[in-house]
Design goal:
The chain is of the alpha/beta class and 315 residues long. The chain has 2 domains: 6-161, 3-Layer(aba) Sandwich (Rossmann fold), CATH 3.40.50.970; 180-308, Rossmann fold, CATH 3.40.50.920. It has helices at 6-17, 32-35, 38-43, 55-67, 78-84, 86-94, 123-129, 141-153, 199-212, 230-239, 255-266, 286-292, 297-308; strands at 24-28, 48-50, 71-77, 101-105, 134-136, 158-161, 183-186, 191-195, 217-221, 224-226, 243-250, 271-276. Strand 8 (191-195), helix 9 (199-212) and strand 9 (217-221) form a beta-alpha-beta unit. Helix 10 (230-239) crosses helix 11.
Length: 315
């Protein structure tokens, strides 16, 4: 089923929240057409602040607005939110635990022709490392819409990561969104596929392909990368023969490392990571780049089969 970009779910949620939360304001770094916040600006010009191509300034302004009782959503591309404005993100927002929501679009390699300078494959690693910060990576338009509303209603700093491209609707993601809770998309006892972001759809496709081979895969979707749903992940580690994580992000510092370190401490099991393998991105069409960097169902299946071969069946 055709869908809409997750960045559109973000902006649609802001428009829906505007009347409910009069303190909500939106900031952008002169990329409002790319982030889609131009739609909020058109509807509520008095509640929109264009801070220019100066993300350090944008996050500092957002911090000041939060101190004055506003609910700022500071929006820009993921690469610039977490690298160019890293100092302000850390010291002006996360350290004082201000109620600022940093909304980052164009996460991952599927930004397409913009190339390495705009492809954020390390942003989640940075965000995970900041104490007090909640990190949300929704998987489709509707989950992005729900995640934005959940972020608005919780106190404290949040990093929301959205994509640029359009991806299919994943109806299994549309149950009530709860920060800190994973979603069990498919039961199974052989191997667990753990997804975040747009890899949810690829994970479900991989599960179907494994099922056709006679295996019973479990699919666990993790839209909250921090705090991690430790109970759901450890239960999967106990009940299946191994885990494959899948993310549109570097395998360094993202979901894969979070899952691997958790199970290593509590219930060691085989963990294989599908993601970008410690390289910078390059220009290309979004779908071509997902193929190039191995972010497909076929890559998940290959890792799952490697775990399953020769290991004793658990059910």
């Amino acid at each position: 089923m055709a869908g809409k970009p997750t960045r559109q779910g973000y902006v649609d949620a802001l428009l829906e929240l505007a009347d409910e939360l009069p303190e909500l304001v939106v900031l952008d770094a002169d990329v409002s057409k790319a982030t889609r916040t131009c739609e909020f600006q058109a509807a509520h010009p008095e509640r929109f602040f264009n801070c220019g191509t100066a993300e350090q300034n944008e996050l500092s302004v957002a911090a000041g607005l939060a101190l004055e009782g506003f609910l700022p959503f500071a929006t820009t591309l993921a690469m610039f939110a977490t690298t160019r404005a890293a100092d302000q993100f850390r010291n002006s927002i996360a350290y004082p635990r201000l109620n600022v929501k940093v909304a980052a679009t164009h996460g991952g390699v599927s930004t397409g022709g913009d190339g390495a300078s705009h492809q954020a494959c390390e942003d989640v690693a940075f965000a995970r490392a900041l104490p007090s910060l909640t990190v949300l990576v929704p998987g489709d338009y509707e989950e992005a819409r729900q995640a934005t509303k959940a972020a608005a209603r919780m106190a404290g700093p949040v990093y929301l990561r959205f994509g640029r491209d359009t991806y299919p609707v994943v109806p299994q993601l549309h149950d009530s969104f709860q920060i800190g809770r994973a979603k069990l998309l498919r039961e199974g006892c052989d191997v667990t596929i753990v997804t975040t972001g747009i890899m949810a759809g690829e994970g479900l496709q991989a599960a179907e392909q494994l099922s056709e081979r006679g295996y019973a895969p479990r699919v666990l979707h993790v839209p909250t990368v921090k705090p991690l749903d430790e109970d759901a992940i450890l239960q999967a580690a106990l009940q299946t023969r191994g885990m494959v994580t899948a993310e549109e992000h570097s395998i360094v510092g993202g979901l894969g490392e979070a899952v691997a370190s958790l199970v290593a401490e509590h219930h060691p099991t085989m963990v294989r990571r599908v993601g970008v393998h410690d390289v910078f991105g390059e220009s290309g069409h979004a779908q071509e780049l997902l193929d190039k960097y191995g972010l497909r169902a076929a890559n998940i299946v290959a890792e799952a089969l490697d775990i399953l071969e020769g290991r004793r069946r658990s059910c």
